[in-house]
Fold:
Amino acid sequence: MSSPFSLAGKTAVVTGANTGIGQAIALSLAEAGAEVICAGRSAVTETLDLIAAAGGKARGLALDLADPLAGRKVFDNLGPVDILVNNAGIIRRNDAVDFTEADWDEVMDVNLKAVFFLCQGFAKATFARQAKGKIVNIASLLSFQGGIRIASYTSSKSGVAGLTKLLANEWAAKGINVNAIAPGYIVTNNTEALRADPVRNKSILDRIPAGHWGEASDIGGTAVFLASPAADYIHGAILNVDGGWLAR
Ligand SMILES: NC(=O)c1ccc[n+]([C@@H]2O[C@H](COP(=O)([O-])OP(=O)(O)OC[C@H]3O[C@@H](n4cnc5c(N)ncnc54)[C@H](OP(=O)(O)O)[C@@H]3O)[C@@H](O)[C@H]2O)c1
Structure:
């Protein structure tokens, strides 16, 4: 009996797969049966080792999204790819009045422009081989909320939510599901400083109905779901995985 959550026979690309949420997604997709192309600007050796140790199949791909157009060509030489997970992302913090053009452009390039051109490259390759595909974008609570001192991050992640819905509208009937995951507060390198600050940590925990931070593996499982046949009729959804934060 085949499971609706199985990714056996599928190939997936995950950006930013060397660490954090991207690493967990790569591992989860491999555990569900996909061959995973782990893309990173840093070495993805640790992720490849984890997947190999779990009995999965993976290979690495050097991909620096500081060039946001890099995604246009990435699918030309990879062979058939069924699943694209746009996970790579950065954040810059400063008061809005002092925010620099570099802190605006760098974040928008990696978090939004690169996501669009990766989606475009993936769709062109998928349409060319008359296949079906799944795109999972990593959004944020800041796709829905304003935040503070993170003007480019909030703008980029709000943009990811809008882009996800636009692409779903254009591509749903053509066989590509475009959806997103909005992670809440997840334990990664990215959030280490927040967790180390007892005052911030307490105020965050006090607001999370689940009462604890999320693990990167929580996002991995959700990515498997959205990449799987179980999600065939889901288009343009942004799935909150936040311990209930946005329900408050
Ligand atoms: N952790 C959370 O609580 C949380 C909440 C909501 C959304 N998110 C989102 O989840 C995603 C992953 O975040 P994380 O928490 O796992 O953070 P992380 O540990 O800092 O990982 C970020 C990933 O993005 C990669 N990346 C950054 N710039 C890149 C570039 N120019 N080219 C290619 N890859 C690049 C990083 O590579 P390097 O290691 O080489 O820098 C790393 O793999 C991001 O989109 C983030 O906005 C995280």
Notes: Residues 11-240 form a domain with the Rossmann fold fold (CATH 3.40.50.720). The two ends are 40 Å apart (CA to CA). The CA atoms of residues 54 and 68 lie 32 Å apart. The chain is about 40% helix and 15% strand.
